[in-house]
Design a protein that fits this description.
Layout (H helix, E strand, L loop, with lengths): L2 H21 L8 E8 L5 E8 L4 H13 L1 H12 L8 E6 L2 H33 L1
Parallel strand pairs: 2-3
Antiparallel strand pairs: 1-2
Helix pairs in contact: 1-3
């Protein structure tokens, strides 16, 4: 990616995040965070990675589908904010960023491993005490 496309990607990410926070916070529940953005070399498409916070997978999926349905509306608002900074307003394509969910799964896995080790250590100590 060229320096210009990187700057445009950063600008799009920042402005879309602001738009979501200020204009759509009440409509997009639970909270949506734009974690990353990439822009094609010709600046025609912006790929936005969104993390959706929610208690259930169904809730997160419904919010993400709603976000996708708002893409054109968000693009229009983006255009009014950045049209003087870029030659073309890119089409917005949203992707579900599961990195936070994956991190949570990994943390839970490590917790289970830690608990299993502690249990084995306790069992080992109990066995050693019984032999004495």
């Amino acid at each position: 990616m060229s320096v210009y496309t990187e700057r445009v990607a950063e600008l799009v990410q920042r402005e879309v995040a602001r738009i979501l926070q200020r204009e759509y916070a009440d409509r997009l529940q639970p909270m949506v965070t734009i974690t990353r953005a990439r822009v094609t070399g010709d600046l025609s498409i912006a790929y936005l990675y969104a993390s959706v916070m929610g208690d259930t997978a169904e809730e997160r999926e419904a919010t993400f589908r709603q976000l996708e349905s708002l893409a054109d509306e968000i693009r229009n608002q983006l255009a009014s904010r950045i049209r003087h900074k870029v030659r073309e307003i890119p089409e917005l394509k949203f992707f579900h960023d599961e990195s936070l969910e994956e991190a949570k799964r990994m943390e839970n896995l490590f917790d289970r491993i830690r608990e299993e080790r502690e249990r084995r250590l306790e069992d080992g100590e109990d066995s050693a005490d019984a032999r004495e």
